[in-house]
Amino acid sequence: MSEVQHDVTVDATQVNASDEVSKSNEIVELNEVVELNESRSAEIVGDDEADSAVSGVELGAGEADFETDSTTVDSDDSDGDDSDGDDDESDEAAGGGASARQGSRSRSRVALLEREGEVAADFLERLLDIADLDGDIDVDIDGDRAAVSIVDSEEGRVPRRLVGADGKVLDALQELTRLAVQTATGERSRLMLDVAGFRADRRSALVTLARESIAQVRASGVSMALADMTAFERKVVHDEVTAAGLLSESEGVEPHRHIIISPA
Fold it and tell me: Which of 126, 153, 214, 259 could share a disulfide with 136, CB 3.0–4.6 Å?
């Protein structure tokens, strides 16, 4: 009887040891993937910066189209033709159809962003479970992208090592999450991931810096170079400069790439 009990105890010990080794291997593999994807995260966020940098050109093109349309309307009004009533009805019908299509596309886009947030939340919850880390997931839509945040939970605080030095681990984790979303939806994702409010705090500080720099450039009429920044940080500054009606461009090579703000 004692030999049977001994065998059962040994088997249970081996099973527990096997479970611990399996869990340890999963965590090691996760860390390796995060390290391998750190470099790719900068490229993805860099695309966002490029989108912001060309926004001024796109806006200018939109203004030119508007002016052309205005000229066309003036020319039509000067004709004074009896068919104006029929034309107005046709234009109204066409405008209603265009508005309906635009509304449909907008709803479709929102549905896609909501789907991205759900997939990202599921992916991150699994990662936290594998690594045995605390944290809750918040999902939102910020402009034209999904916004996902890992925040402190009732069980404990989010480990700040998920942010890493200068947000490098966070960037890698964001890249992993985007890849998971792309795999599930078949669409390239531009979602933004935040951990413990790191990006929110940094964004607030950058907005203040950008506005102060914009005021200096306006007052002096001279271009101003800012300190080296990451792709995420540069995008925040580009957005503020564009909104203020000034010009900005990035110069240098990573990790010493910076922004120059110039008068319009």
Answer: 153
Query: Residue 151's closest CA among 165, 176, 133?
Result: 133
The C-alpha angle with vertex 236 and arms to 118 and 30, in degrees rounded to 5, equals 45
Query: Could you tell me if residue 156 is inside a domain?
Result: yes
* Strand runs labelled E in the chain: 136-142, 145-151, 192-195, 224-225, 247-251, 258-262
Answer yes or no: is 122 within a domain: yes
Tell which of 152, 167, 196 closes a domain. 196
Q: Indicate whether 161 and 216 sit together in one domain.
A: no
- pLDDT-above-90 percentage for the chain: 51
pLDDT tens-digit series, residues 96-118: 566 666 667 778 889 999 999 99
Give me the sheet containing 258-262, strands edge to edge.
224-225, 258-262, 247-251
pTM exceeds cut of 0.90: no
Distance (Å, whole) CA 247 – CA 213: 12
| CA dist., res. 239 & res. 46, Å (int) | 14
Q: End of a domain among 196, 222, 239?
A: 196
Domain span at residue 123?
27-57+86-196
Q: Taking the mean position of all CA atoms in its chain, how far away is CA 16?
A: 41
